[in-house]
Amino acid sequence: MTAASPAPAGTTAPPAAPAADAGLLIPISRSAGPLRTVVLHPAGGGLGPYLGLAAALARYGPVSGIRAPGLLPGEEPDDSVPGMTARYLRLIDRLESPVGLLLGWSLGGLLAWELAGRLAARGERPRVVMLDSPALPPAHDGRDGRDRAALRERVIDSAGTTGHDTELVVRTTDAHLRALTRHTVRGGYDHPALLLSCAAEPDAAAHLAHWRTVAPGLRTVSVPCGHFDLLTPPRLRTTTGLVTDFLRDTGPAGPAPASPIRPAEEHP
Q1: Where does the Thioesterase TesA-like domain lie (predicted)?
Q2: Fewer Cβ in 10 A, N or C end of the chain?
């Protein structure tokens, strides 16, 4: 694959991705269309949670996913958001055309946001969709050992890593949870971006408040569900409709499927 575009004058292009990282970039759909989508893995590292949503996104153009390193023997997981962002920016440069949409759930949305900021510095302006992504470190440190273990198991169960070695999945998940506890969103992004916030989560208000501080133009929608519900039936239909509404409202992206009923609260 060729790089998406050369770096603008006065900027430095990132170094090429190591050959060992090439296997992290996964083609999900090679469909033709004007919108190239890249989905970023959630905590745990797999891409399975996106398969239902990717079927709708494929109507607009090709869809690729980036899985996390650490899930295969010989790979080391990343435990910092900046480290993941730098690695995945090099992978995006392998694509045959510029990315039009960066999308992620949880940690994946945070990575999409950080990648969009890096791409903007090079003159690229992808749209961004974040599915209940944190702006602040989660309150993991306030949990006792049993609560932390339960959270880790819930993340692993939802991460789309079936078939991978359990020990490697656990190690990768722990690295991602460490990354989340160390990262606070500080930079804004002035191109169209959408955040779906799960109203049933106890820290939803705190994350929304911080997102609005750093990104006043961010479109936010409050969805009446929990964090682990957004990409599973029956909530997946609502999530898909909100994402396709956003694409329709923010620029040409091809035909959109019919939208479901919107949730109760939306903030433009």
Answers
A1: 38-247
A2: C
